[in-house]
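Renewal narrative, Specific Aim 1. Our central claim is that a sequence can be written position by position from structural information alone. The example that follows is taken directly from our test logs and has not been curated for this report. It begins with the structure tokens describing the chain, in the order in which they were read.
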């Protein structure tokens, strides 16, 4: 039976990213204190299994969680890369969360540092 994914969180909104060429980004609608967390929701699939091969269209957006991959289906999938990010990934069992690493003001874009393999896939050259 299909699972319904319908994320709603008044703390966030989507709008054009401040990062050139990034498309949409995730922005804080309210101030977010240090340590604020939110879950990256989505479909958890076995890495290199049939579901992984069938969802190749989403390869650039999948997160690795041990032997699994998470295909994000909510706000977490809209967080863009920055060399000086304001979020970090936190894993808890087979769940992925983003945690705020410094207090954020309403209106700020939320970012995290993509892994090196993702930077290469996207053609992003990190700042030195």
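The sequence written for that structure reads:
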């Amino acid at each position: 039976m299909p699972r319904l994914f319908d994320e709603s969180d008044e703390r966030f909104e989507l709008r054009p990213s401040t990062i050139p060429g990034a498309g949409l980004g995730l922005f804080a609608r309210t101030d977010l204190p240090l340590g604020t967390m939110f879950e990256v929701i989505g479909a958890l699939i076995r890495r290199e299994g049939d579901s992984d091969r069938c969802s190749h269209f989403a390869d650039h957006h999948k997160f690795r969680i041990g032997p699994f991959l998470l295909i994000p289906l909510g706000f977490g999938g809209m967080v863009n890369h920055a060399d000086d990010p304001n979020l970090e990934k936190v894993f808890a069992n087979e769940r992925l969360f983003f945690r705020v690493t410094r207090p954020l003001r309403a209106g700020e874009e939320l970012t995290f540092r993509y892994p090196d393999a993702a930077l290469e896939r996207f053609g992003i050259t990190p700042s030195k």
